[in-house]
Amino acid sequence: MTINPIYEHVGYTTLNQEPTLKKHLPLTCKLKRVATGPEGLTSLVRRATLRESDLTPKYEKVHNFKVHTFRGPHWCEYCANFMWGLIAQGVKCADCGLNVHKQCSKVVPNDCQPDLRHVKKVYSCDLTTLVKAHNTKRPMVVDMCIQEIEARGLQSEGLYRISGFSELVEDVKLAFDRDGEKVDISSNVYEDINIITGALKLYFRELPIPLITYDAYPHFMESAKVTDPEKRLESLHEALKLLPPAHCETLRYLMAHLKRVTDYEKDNLMTSENLGIVFGPTLMRAPDLDAMTALNDIRYQRLVVETLITNEDVLF
């Protein structure tokens, strides 16, 4: 990383500080996977000694910069030059705490490494921010809820369609925000499995950026309108490539789970179509749509989720 003053061309007087080792290093790829074939793991010893963190994909994330007033002398962590002024001297990433000039923020790599001290909650938190802060493949709430549902709820009639008691669903949400992965959602605490399904649906509804993101939404809608089944799958496959890696991995895991739910449809009465009705508006939404357009989109949202569930093994 250069230590040349980024403001040199605009005549700023700079006060250089000796450059220190940067803790924010650019990622070389959006999603890094550990090879599991014979070329990637050449010995049983190597395979046995892989740490869990080595198996966790590395997701690229942009910084969440906000204008900040720093107390006392401060140096930019990108160009290593002094940050002049008494107020609003620069910007600070709300997720990882990186301090840089406003101009430097435009060229900083997308290498945000969220700090748990800055990530205060689980619900209503950006999905990529959450998984990077906890160094996991998917949000913990998704993994834990799905594991609990599959352990004791797959044969429950109306699974995901029947709502749990709203106060207890809110209680699960607060427990995740407070205790994180230490939360107890077992039958000893929440006997009704519909409370757990309600908490999972609530998590997806409260994401600031939906699981199927705003940017990708139009492409999924266009895919749903394709009448030829084979071409629709091809279009959906291309649309999936537009999702951020953490979103795509979470969607894959959820669709595999919902496919297993349909394996018990004789007991739970939840077909892929029924699950599409439930999860369509939960997983995808477009901003600034008028009421009539939003209403018309519901059937295509259902069709997208239904197709993803039915063809989960092909699309992911």
From TrEMBL:
Top-rank taxon, per record: Eukaryota
Residues covered by the Phorbol-ester/DAG-type domain: 62-112
UniProt xrefs under InterPro entries: C1-like_sf, DAG/PE-bd, PKC_DAG/PE, Rho-type_GAP, Rho_GTPase_activation_prot, RhoGAP_chimaerin, RhoGAP_dom
A biological-process GO annotation: signal transduction
GO molecular function term, any single one: zinc ion binding
UniProt keyword Metal-binding present: yes
Keyword annotations: GTPase activation, Metal-binding, Neurogenesis, Phosphoprotein, Zinc, Zinc-finger
SUPFAM superfamilies xrefs: Cysteine-rich domain, GTPase activation domain, GAP
Rho-GAP domain location: 125-316
Claim: Iron-sulfur is one of the keywords in the record: no
Record-given protein name: N-chimaerin
Biological classification of the source: Eukaryota, Metazoa, Chordata, Craniata, Vertebrata
